[in-house]
TrEMBL record:
Organism this protein belongs to: Paenisporosarcina quisquiliarum
Stored InterPro entries: Ig_E-set (IPR014756), Spore_0_M (IPR009776)
Name of this chain's protein: Sporulation protein
SUPFAM superfamilies: E set domains
Source species, domain of life: Bacteria
Pfam name, any one: Spo0M
């Protein structure tokens, strides 16, 4: 019977189960995330090489004129050294770690989740998936509020493959796409995109892409060549947030 149970466990029948329970479900990038991972033995004893928790999200990339959605683990946390889980035994493993600063905000189509797994040789590794909410940090919230006050309406939020210059920092960036719905910039832009790239815990690089509206034949040619797009780069610290709205107004106005 023991041999039969081991055979079943090797194909995922009656093997150990894993369940991660979080102390909270909403976070800001950079905050500590904590909880406990419970492992319950199956029909036979199994050797577990490790328990791992990975932070996942998805992003879009283009290749050969096609779009693909990739899942990416932006962080991996190992909980333990190898151990044996006996038949029906229950073990609990507390954990805590800091969410990466590049963890995207769960707005629009963006989703973030924890994937917990057991690494068991010669068996189907059991797993557990937990969705989490990521709220805007102080920089993103200040940028969203400033944009809204200037008459911009948030139209889309998604993660896309990072520009080549930033791929050493992150494989993707999160883009916040706005339209000028009211205020001084109404009718002057097709869209404006904000991208926030962390430069440590106390600085953020804000990239702004301004896409001007087409006016006349010359502008049509400019649009075809992407010459109607302009880029603004800012480095922000906490001290800059109180004046961010006026600074954005001044910078964006240069391209209106």
């Amino acid at each position: 019977m023991s041999i039969f149970n081991k055979v079943l466990a090797s194909v995922g029948v009656g093997n150990a189960k894993v369940d991660t329970k979080l102390n909270n479900s909403a976070f800001v990038a950079g905050e500590m995330i904590s909880g406990v991972t419970e492992v319950v033995g199956g029909n036979t004893a199994q050797n577990v090489d490790s328990i791992y928790i990975k932070v996942y999200t998805t992003y879009e990339r283009e290749a050969n004129d096609n779009k693909y959605t990739d899942s990416v683990a932006i962080y991996s946390h190992k909980l333990n050294e190898p151990f044996t889980i006996e038949k029906g035994e229950k073990k609990a493993f507390p954990f805590s770690f800091s969410l990466p600063l590049i963890t995207p905000v769960t707005m629009g189509r963006t989703r973030v989740w924890l994937q917990t797994g057991l690494d068991i040789k010669n068996a189907v590794d059991p797993g557990d998936k937990d969705m989490i909410e990521i709220r805007p940090n102080a920089y993103i919230q200040a940028g969203l509020t400033a944009a809204q006050n200037l008459g911009f309406k948030l139209r889309k939020v998604d993660c896309e493959e990072a520009p080549r210059a930033y791929r050493g920092i992150t494989p993707f960036v999160q883009e916040f796409e706005f339209i000028a719905a009211s205020g001084p910039f109404r009718g002057k832009f097709d869209e404006v995109e904000f991208t926030f790239i962390p430069k440590g815990s106390d600085q953020v690089e804000l990239l702004i892409q301004v896409d001007r509206k087409v006016r006349g034949l010359g502008s049509l040619f400019s649009e075809a060549l992407n010459m109607d797009e302009s880029y603004i780069r800012m480095t922000l610290s906490k001290a800059d947030l109180s004046s961010l709205e006026s600074r954005l107004n001044q910078e964006i106005a240069r391209y209106s």
